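Protein in question filed below.

…
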Amino acid sequence: MAVNKRNQSKRSNILVITEALLIAYIGYLSHFILIHLGLSRQVSVETLVVNIGLMTICILLCSLSVGLYETKLRETFRGIIRRIFVSVGLSYFLVEVISRALFDRLVMDGYFLPVAVCSIIITLVTFRYFTNRLGLLGLGKVRIVVLGAGERASIIEKRMRRDVDRIGFELLGFVPIPGDNREEGIKQEKIVHVKVDESFQQFIIDNDIEEVVIACDQRRGTLPVEVLFEARLRGVEVTDLLDFMERETGQIVVNLMYPSWVIYSNGFQSNNYLRDALDYSLNAFLAFIIFIFVWPFMLMTGLIIYLDDGRRTKTSVFYKQERVGLNGKLFKIIKFRSMRPDAEKDGAKWASQNDDRVTRIGHFIRKYRIDELPQLLNVFKGEMAFIGPRPERPEFVEKLVREVPYYNQRHNVKPGLAGWAQLNYPYGASVDDSMEKLKFDLYYVKHQSLLLDILILIRTVEVVLFGKGR
């Protein structure tokens, strides 16, 4: 596991460093060409370094915010081009604002930034094209074999079909184990027929296996413990299926969990005492900063909702609804109203992506998450955080707790405006959808940290920019 994590980190670091060098070099080259064309004047080394450095940092941060450095970015090459245009375009305005506000005396000639930005876009698109097509950053993939070919092992085949799902490892195949449910097991993947005894140890050596994933349906009396012990002594990673899926997919496979795995894991309680101590202060400060920038949009949204149907129906532009918060405590969530006043005349219903109860303006404000902005007040009141599982309605929670195992564990943390599940799964419109979202929610609860919160916050910018509201 440690080997694979290091390789993933290494690939991301190589990508960031390479693109940083490319951006800086293209910035210098653009200035050099403009001077020789007589369109720009020679500047001091200090001025050139400040401008190129600022431009490089802004482009890297904007690229991060739109998900370009995600190791498992599920996007077509056309989508990557679009993200590059957005990130570099945002950087253009950031550089203009920051340089004129803080480095006015070091501002370059007017031609420099437009020419540099256009050249950088072409360079990054070309670089990403060859990176994707030739797999330039796929080096150092971990070679793995899965011990088991039954129902449990089939979760890998079902959930990790695409190449992007396997970017960090090379799967050599599945080894059948006595007791596996082959009828519900592997259908399309390669089956490796090797006995799970000393010959399996030789198979590991001959094929340079770096990790063995334990995914058999029956463990008692079937696992080659001595062989795995010897492999572990040789430095081969031996990983449980649940840990493997958690690492590679960013979710916890709830329906495959068993008591001993929970007991020996780090549980679902935060041990980050500094983060917990500063929780309200950080969230309130961030809410205040965001409110300073978004209050005009909130005022405009309220006015539009009022003119759209609020004036006619005499209904508030805000919508208050009871939700389940930290440790199961109920609170009133505040949102801009995006549905008709009679939306729940027949009782509580699941929200869906194309809900016919949504108003004309409601579709827009949901798509770009504008309807969530009044929840800044919930953050100020300490009922919500910026990052956390989305709070669910008590009517649904009562049912979900009965039908979905471990569902109550998501209430171990404050609910949030944005969450890991919202970045990875669309609207939940059924118990099955709630099960899928819970896998991501529990991953967040188990791994909650300031760094993960920052990652989710940055990725949420991508959701807003590309209108992927969930």
Remarks:
- The domain at 142-249 is CATH 3.40.50.20 (Rossmann fold).
- DSSP finds 17 helices and eight strands in the chain.
